[in-house]
Amino acid sequence: MLVLDKREVESLLDPDALRAAVAAALADLSAGRASMPTRIAALVPERDGLLAVMPAYLPGAGALTTKLVSLFPRNTDRPTHQAVIVAFDPDTGSPAALMDGEAITAARTAAGSALATDLLARRDAATLAVLGAGVQARAHLRALPRVRPFREIVVGARDMAKASALARQIAAETGIAARAASFAEAVRAADVVCACTHSAEPVVRRDWLREGTHVNSVGYNTAGREVDGETVAAALLVVESRAAALAPPPGGSNDLLWPIRDGLMDATHVHAELGELVSGARQGRADAAQLTLYKSVGVAVEDAAAAALVLRLARERGVGREITI
Question: At 290, which CATH number?
Fold first, then answer.
């Protein structure tokens, strides 16, 4: 079995190759060419935490994997999301690799948002707002400028010191002008919004959004939601998987389930799966003024595609350590 640590995994995750791998995986999922049950989790109520299991078989990538991922939002001395991925040989079922899943989770989530942005955002989108200042925010700030030539980045957060520090870092890395702002100010300024928070109260609200804005939402909180119901109901809505997004927690999203509960929409409001846009089975934005929303809950085929990419490159480049278990 090959073992890959976080540093090694990060060294093998090319953003453009990963975005293409995620696109192919989601197209296979929507076409019924993958096996992926809904995420299940054991809850740790004393810590508001959970441990989730996410298996998938993705024949197109030659991937049979499962991810074990914990979410402990109270953590301050370590990441709130921690994960490992085990890859199995799809021909024999033998364990083939054990790799860090934290880097893959961040990168594949941002790759999905970049893919959605490429397919749904206006071509003339100039200002990117990223809400949050954590791992996912950083991953999105690196992934999104690869699909649109943004002229300005706005980092929205409650902690302005963290937002300012992240804005300075991203400006230095990308050469794009960046500044810090409140959530409301960031959303109001943006053509593309990436909500990457653990907020239980909406950080994206309909009356803050301009016409034609594209929103990516990747935050997850069983106690709340980061996008208000009015935004969800007004938007052309795209998800990774209808079954996953509309499942009860810990599989689905309160961002969608609560507007349905409140009578603002029903399940048919989901316009498309992202894989259907990739394949051309469904069309995306109809006009420049349309509000579009990609709500991600994170699905296991994305992890499988990323793990298969990492494993292939590790073998080609001699990265990692072989162990016997």
Answer: 3.40.50.720
Closest CA to 105 of 238, 240, 218: 218
Structural domain count of the chain: 2
**310 has pLDDT over 90:** yes
pLDDT at residue 231 tops 90: yes
Name residues whose C-beta falls within 8 Å of residue 263's C-beta, 6 or more positions apart in sequence: none
Report residue 222's pLDDT band, with 50, 70 and 90 as the boundaries: confident
CA atoms within 13 A on the CB side of 241: 24
Q: Return d(Cα 151, Cα 161) in angstroms, integer.
A: 23
Expressed as residue numbers, the domain containing 72 is: 2-105+301-322
What's the whole-model pTM score?
Answer: 0.96
d(CA 255, CA 270): 12
Convert the pLDDT of each residue in 25-39 to its tens digit. Answer: 999 999 999 999 999
Q: Is 153 in the same domain as 40?
A: no
Tell me which H or E stretch contains 85. strand 81-88
Q: Are 307 and 99 a contacting pair, CB within 8 Å?
A: yes
Residues 291 and 311 in one domain: no
